[in-house]
Amino acid sequence: MKAIGLKVARPVSDENLFEQTELDAPKPEGHDILVRVKGVAVNPVDFKVRRGKADDGTFKVLGWDAAGIVEAVGDKVTLFGKGDEVWYAGDITRPGSNSELQLVDERIAALKPKKLDFAAAAALPLTTITAWEAMFDRMKIDRTALEANQGKSILIINGAGGVGSIAIQLAKMAGLQVIATASRPETISWVTKMGADHVINHHQPLKEQLEGAGFATVDYVLCTSEIDDYWDVMCDLVAPQGHIVSITEAKNNHNVDLLKAKSASFSYEFMFTRSMFQTPDMIEQHKLLTEMAALVDADAIQVTTGDHFGALTPESLRKAHAVLESGKAIGKIVFDGLGA
């Protein structure tokens, strides 16, 4: 099978960053399904893993957002059969989706939305799982308690990114007041389109802007940007007994005692935790992607594709990584798969 990847970590400016090669086709066993990849998307995790690639001569295939067609199944598979059209974010400990064929555990995949083509479908799994788990698993927001949530608020830092774009929509569906950060005219327009009730500029003091919008504090904070840039202000803005979730890792040590007087809590969200540790509740990702597919098909969720970069090639993939590293991406960048 054809695959695109790298042997050596190089800067995104290097035209030889990625190469295409032939690899042996994998065979499904156990709970694995073998998927012919038809659409892929890129995420910040792609370039973070790329930058950390060990110089050990191995060929690394990146990519953790995909949609495709099941070609074969393992002997323990019960959820899918050959010919099913699926979507998933995969497992960071296994080869990625920048290839013609990929193995993925059935418990973290689901049937893709019928209304979407493969590239558009590939834009959603990783960000959907991340936003869903951040709010409904980590923050313990009851997404069915619409009346109770009407008076509650969430601040989403970097609302125009992939996770922010989905988080805004899910938070609105749960009945929350949504404040999203954005700074450029195009990103302000984007988060407004996604459903944000208020937009504030993350390049300006957040506290004063929140107060101007009528919020002394917020019940929840979802940080999809660099946590080091926002720790102190998030602790200041979160309400007593509120909750902060970050999807980015801290490079510096921070004072958690800032949360003590408020009895506020903090947690990380890493959507690969379930697959990485083979947790007993892995099937929850299958369930949430199944529910999201139904929401998409019912036109309750907007697709978050920002740009379609055409066919997946070493050069188009390098250009996508460059956009992501610049911090200027809006929504998700998608491709047709190598096997499309």
Automatic annotation (TrEMBL):
Task: Please name the SUPFAM superfamilies in this protein's record.
Answer: GroES-like, NAD(P)-binding Rossmann-fold domains
> Which keywords does this chain's UniProt record carry?
Metal-binding, Oxidoreductase, Zinc
Cite the SMART domains for this sequence.
PKS_ER
GO MF term (any one): oxidoreductase activity
Domain spans labelled Enoyl reductase (ER):
10-335
> Has the keyword Ribosomal protein been applied to this entry?
no
Which top-rank group of organisms is this from? Bacteria
Recorded hits in PROSITE patterns, A to Z, give:
QOR_ZETA_CRYSTAL
Q: Which InterPro entries does the annotation name?
A: ADH-like_C (IPR013149), ADH-like_N (IPR013154), ADH_Zn_typ-1 (IPR014182), ER (IPR020843), GroES-like_sf (IPR011032), Lipid_raft_assoc_Zn_ADH (IPR052585), NAD(P)-bd_dom_sf (IPR036291), Quin_OxRdtase/zeta-crystal_CS (IPR002364)
Q: Which family does it belong to?
A: Belongs to the zinc-containing alcohol dehydrogenase family. Quinone oxidoreductase subfamily.
- PANTHER family linked to this entry: PROTEIN AST1-RELATED
What's this protein's name? Zinc-type alcohol dehydrogenase-like protein
Taxonomic source organism = Thalassospira profundimaris
What does UniProt list as this organism's lineage? Bacteria, Pseudomonadati, Pseudomonadota, Alphaproteobacteria, Rhodospirillales
